[in-house]
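Table S5 (text form). Sequence records supplied for joint modeling of the two-component complex.
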Amino acid sequence: QSALTQPASVSGSPGQSITISCTGTSSDVGGYNYVSWYQQHPGKAPKLMIYDVSNRPSGVSNRFSGSKSGNTASLTISGLQAEDEADYYCSSYTSSSTPHWVFGGGTKLTVL
Amino acid sequence: QVQLQQWGAGLLKPSETLSLTCAVYGGSFSGYYWSWIRQPPGKGLEWIGEINHSGSTNYNPSLKSRVTISVDTSKNQFSLKLSSVTAADTAVYYCARGAYCTNGVCYLLGYFYWGQGTLVTVSS
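The corresponding structure-token record, covering 236 residues in total, follows.
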């Protein structure tokens, strides 16, 4: 069982917007602004899409945005495109027990 | 351009020790934390642990008793050892570049650079 809770799947049509939630606790998501989001296509290494809750690395489309409210972080993808179909994982720094990182179980995004 | 290249044994028997190494090319080696992350087939990501150039480590509490991460700054390499493996340790193992620390302040910027991944299978 993953430390952070994500929906198993979400779907949307091209051009639409979708949001993926990531729920943790006050020891991780709620306690720090160190939430990251990763996109993973089959057989590939994860790709960093958002770091520190809402920052985009260079080269990531501005269609991807992140936010946080309390113990829940969210990734929003606007203007869905076929190439956005992938698995998405959230991650958070946590100080629970010892400092380390935890991941969500992943969300499969299907572009209809 | 930063590149991470990893290698190690891909097939182990139960109770053996998993050993992987990751070499870093380009960019700075010191000042960063270097991590290992794994992904069982068809499942999600699991953070294993990290080390900096000084040898300071942090481990996933659930794996801490079996994990050792070490660093060789002369070669810009870091390594993972996981002892007493079982079938549950079968996964793709990734190395990745983590937080940047300078003047006592660390910037947790997520994992931008990843190795290519190594599938490690544990089977008798």
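Note: The radius of gyration of chain B is 14 Å.
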